[in-house]
């Protein structure tokens, strides 16, 4: 039986992705273009039971806008069903995380695709509204409401 990491690699290969292995980790990194931006996707296997997809925003949140972005992320996370935003207020790194605990089960290709493309879709959906907050042209509450109502 293939390890979880081998299964993840086979699914990325089946989707035709180009990626690089992360040294010393059971993980890979790949660049991807969304509708609203370019992202870095990191897929990690922790042990043999946890699979995570981290989708990183290209660049950092400016220090002067981190308070507003913290509010944006908190408001966005409240309404999310699968996955969540993570924001490092110290360095401005912003990412979206989806994960699954696979104890006593195996990762299906459908679960893999849902995690991968769900993470990308969530970050891409919120990005234009987040950018307005980062530029100081939108209130965090209004920007999240716009993202969630498709405006």
List the helices and strands and how they pair.
Elements: H1 4-14, E1 20-21, E2 27-33, E3 38-46, E4 50-57, H2 66-79, E5 84-87, E6 94-101, H3 109-134, H4 140-148
Antiparallel strand pairs: 1-2, 2-3, 3-4, 4-6, 5-6
Helix pairs in contact: 2-3, 2-4, 3-4
CATH architecture: 2-Layer Sandwich
- Strand order in space, largest sheet: 1-2-3-4-6-5
- Please tell me what the overall shape is: elongated
Number of helices: 4
Q: What's the β-strand tally?
A: 6
- Give the C-alpha Rg: 16 Å
Describe, in short, the structure shown.
The protein is α+β, with helices and mostly antiparallel strands and 151 residues long.
Notes on the protein architecture:
This protein has 151 residues and is α+β, with helices and mostly antiparallel strands. It has a single domain (4-148), classed as Yope Regulator, Chain: A, CATH 3.30.1460. It has helices at residues 4-14, 66-79, 109-134, 140-148; strands spanning 20-21, 27-33, 38-46, 50-57, 84-87, 94-101. It starts with a helix and ends with a helix. The mean pLDDT is 95.
Characteristic key phrases:
Yope Regulator, Chain: A, 6-stranded antiparallel beta sheet, 151 residues
């Amino acid at each position: 039986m293939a390890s979880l990491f081998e299964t993840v690699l086979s699914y990325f290969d089946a989707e035709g992705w180009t990626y690089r292995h992360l040294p010393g980790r059971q993980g890979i990194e790949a660049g991807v273009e969304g509708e609203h931006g370019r992202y870095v996707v990191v897929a990690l296997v922790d042990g043999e039971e946890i699979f995570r997809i981290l989708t990183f925003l290209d660049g950092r949140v400016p220090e002067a806008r981190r308070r507003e972005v913290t509010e944006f992320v908190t408001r966005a996370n409240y309404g999310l069903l699968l996955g969540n935003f993570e924001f490092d207020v110290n360095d401005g790194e912003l990412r979206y995380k989806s994960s699954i605990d696979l104890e006593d089960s195996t990762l299906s290709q459908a679960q893999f695709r849902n995690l991968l493309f769900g993470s990308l879709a969530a970050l891409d959906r919120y990005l234009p509204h987040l950018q307005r907050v980062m530029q100081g042209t939108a209130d965090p509450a209004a920007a999240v409401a716009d993202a969630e109502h498709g405006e």
